[in-house]
Amino acid sequence: MRILKTGSIFLLLVSLMTGCWSSRDLQTMAYATALVVDFVDNKYVIHAQILNFSNIAKNESTQIGQEVPIWIGKSEGTTVTEAMTTFYATSQLRIFWGHLKAVVVTENMMRRGLREVYDEMNRFHQIRFNVLFYGTNESPTELLSRKSLLNFSPLESLLARPKQFYDQKSLILPLYGFKFIAQLNEAGNSTLLPSLAIRNGVWTEDTTNKGMLDIDGAYFFNDLKYTDWMPISDLLGARWLQTKLRRSPINVPDEQPFAVLFMENPKFAITSLIEGEEVRYNIDIELSSYVNELRENVSGEDIKKAAEKVIEDEIRNTYNKAILKKVDIYMLSKTLYRKHPKVWKKIYDKKEFPLKKDSLNEVNVKIHIDHYGKYKDRLYEVK
Asked: Where is the Spore germination protein N-terminal domain positioned along the sequence (predicted)?
């Protein structure tokens, strides 16, 4: 009987053990968290940022500011798949792609075309659809080696979590890959891709310069083809036509300001005016705001009028800069395409670029000031 019981216990233990043989320890896997895809000498060159989650997982022994090692792999191939699978030969550990947060493409890759990149990323079952998409002209190794403030891991940086930065100061909306491709395939559309750069001279650790990631502009595409790049200074007007704008500051007026306002929650409408073979567009926009700084005793009505003028000027200035590069920054022709497809096909279908300087007609801006911060609508005086 004792032998029978011992044998039964042994068989039970063996049966339990067999269910775990195919499992893998999480700490012995390499996790790809970001990729930079380049195209050099007719080959795809991919740099992969690799992290081990045992180094960045939150636990009682983790110290804030502790250095987190970043491994960067480089491979190449005649196809995107070949370039990605070349990593396996020397990685020593199993690479898992399910935690990929961002894909960055270089200007060379944009000029080559992005179909192959997106096809591979979406066919591979481990990679999710909600991967952030960026363009860059920076060195892939330098870009992927950037840490966050206080030496937090790259998972806490602009590369992987841009929303926390966008919520504080909104300029260019973070973009997911599936939305980027959807916009590329839509007629009458200039597609924007955020431009990722390394900005030096702002932060230091003690006396050592620490370059941080920054959105310095955007790349644009027309009909699946790369068009041009625009700096952030030329794109200030584009933020007001983003329905997901959280908050963004303006000086009122732009030069020698007497107030600073934070703008929120834009609501806008684009109207197309068809006049024979010509089409012009009106933009009506309404925004909420609050006064964050008041430098002079100015009435609320004067503040609103000056702010409305600043925003109108930004919208027109961005439009004028964009059409020089053949970019439909406000997707005006898309409005015509959706509401009047027959007219769009008749007027725009065969034109290389449909807009002119006078295509933008009226820009009507209306601002509401919700509050003046902790003070009333007057200049605070120290007594």
From this structure: 23-197
